[in-house]
């Protein structure tokens, strides 16, 4: 029986429970690998710029191929795509662990594995976003997105804490091995899901490039979609470079080691978890334009303040506040895009979302690495905040018209 007055009502769907519980296990491993890889690269090279280059290479396929992925995804069952992408990700993690255990790991190998993982994520991310609505429906979509964020950010707290301990006492190889094994849980969950997939009817007179063009034209003509995606592009490029900036700040400014790095990542995750829980409680109210605007401005301000931080406690508190705003921003943007999109365009809209949210990371990581290399971690945080704030203000002012008000209520 469906539980109506339940803040976690997406969990009343059996298919979603399989998907969610698998993610609970797998994402802890993912965060262990994230901090393990960043610290490994920084240890091997000692260069913030080369660390930023890893992020650039990892997300470069998302930048280059997201639009093509979005046009292809709706032609196949999304569950099958996810099984393939998760299996490939598992093998890539196991290969990296084997390289570390055999003491044959090199910076070039990490770049190749990062590129292959990015290529896999190019199909995984938009598929995952569009799959949510198939297993919970529109009514519980925002709650499902909020619960996904809760899981992601709980893992962001637990994963770095475990990973930092593993690196300190056992070595980074164990982070990669356990991440590889954790994919078994999500693959098992996907195999148990039974749902009727949405597969777009193939048309003989339309090619891949025409479908991409149709999706972009559809977005450009819709003010809500266009404004939201522009804000996501700015925030995704300038605000989400923590994998580069936090380890450099920990090492060069705070003069701390692995445990403090793990703690700082956990602070970011704690704030994000609180934001995700808040969104799960308020998900029935739907996405709000006012929240999107307020959060993108606050995110910029917290980046500027991070550039002025000089102690572990101040830095940790600012990261927690940053994480809180990050989740409110991304959850409202994600929900607004999916709810507002027509079904035949949803995968293409979410592929553009993946492009501007994660596909912009190569530019952001390279910029953050370059800035940290030349101006230090404090200067890099400040520049990222400044280049996030100014474009967001321009977009908000440009789209500020009375016609926006009915759009917001329609999306909700």
From TrEMBL:
GO MF term list: transmembrane transporter activity
Q: Which InterPro entries match?
A: MFS_dom, MFS_trans_sf, TM_effector
Topology versus the membrane, per the UniProt entry?
Answer: Multi-pass membrane protein
Per UniProt, subcellular location reads as: Cell membrane
Record's Pfam families? MFS_3
- Annotated GO CC locations: plasma membrane
* Keywords on record: Cell membrane, Membrane, Transmembrane, Transmembrane helix, Transport
Domain (Major facilitator superfamily (MFS) profile) ranges: 1-403
Asked if the record carries the keyword Coiled coil, the reply is no
Q: Which domain of life is it from?
A: Bacteria
Cited PROSITE patterns: MFS
Bilayer-crossing regions? 49-73, 80-101, 168-191, 229-249, 261-281, 288-305, 311-329, 350-372, 378-399
PANTHER family recorded for this chain?
A: INTEGRAL MEMBRANE EFFLUX PROTEIN-RELATED, STAPHYLOFERRIN A TRANSPORTER
Please identify the protein, giving its name as recorded.
Answer: MFS transporter
Identify the species of origin.
Paenibacillus elgii
